[in-house]
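quick one, 333 residues, struct below
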Amino acid sequence: MSAVEKADQKLLDHATRSIAVGSKSFAAASRLFDPATRRSAVMLYAWCRHCDDVIDGQEAGHSATVVAQEEVDQRLASLAAQTQAVYAGLPVESDAFAAFREVMIRHGIHQTYALEHLSGFAMDVQQRRYHHIDDTLEYCYHVAGVVGLMMAQVMGVNDESTLDRACDLGMGFQLTNIARDIVEDARVGRCYLPRAWLNELSIPDQRLTDSQYRESLAVLAQRLVDMAEPFYESAQAGLSSLPWRSAWAVATASGVYREIGINVKKRGAHAWDTRVSTSKLDKARLVLGGLWRAVTSRGRRWPDRPSELWQRPRHACSAARHAADAVAPEVSK
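---
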């Protein structure tokens, strides 16, 4: 094996470990991609996971800690500078950014998307308050919807209609995540529930971890899971535009996350006693279900995307650049 091949394998091993530890759900679905797409998918995941871990002071998406504001500001600035350096063709400083550079070059990942993703972390750093559900949906777009857009590029998709569906899947994922992690997030000072919803049920936003509010939180978690459903339904229409193995992987990931939401609803006030996940048997069943959905999507005529569904921004490039410039120094003067 040549030095270049060894370096490529080392990078792939790093990304594969990242997804295996960070998300068993995505790791299972990623195995269904063809080898080239899988490599790019896990490389992209490694970068997203790294950025999230750096900001939250966690490892592989687990055990987040409270980080001092000055320190987290510096971390975000560093991530933004390193991301800009990738697009400027400058040297990278870590395996995660080397992985992202490979994906960016191979698939032409739009810089706008990468910067918009970082601006989602900026919302956390700035301790953004979410007063209404549209504020929460904006956050969902930045941390997950835009990842759907980048993944669509990895799968060879660039038409606006299919990109909308890819973004919708990310939105569904994140709404499910928020519902599952309400108490875990609250322990590190994060709350993505709209303040209007908390006020409606008289839940103090500083006491989300108190057991006396679990029944009320279950009402809001169910609301989030129900809100995710039309996003998942919309995303289904994008499967027919993907290569069939990519469609299988995406349909499986969608099924796994939908199942997590269903389990959150079933558990009610006990949804946060232990972390909700899917078993190996469940995943095997959902892999088969994903295959069926991918196959039956081919050649099917899908309805138009619902006009009332939250719409991703169409001209966000300047806004994304402004958000990044607010937290990072320029890297090419």
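The mean pLDDT is 88.
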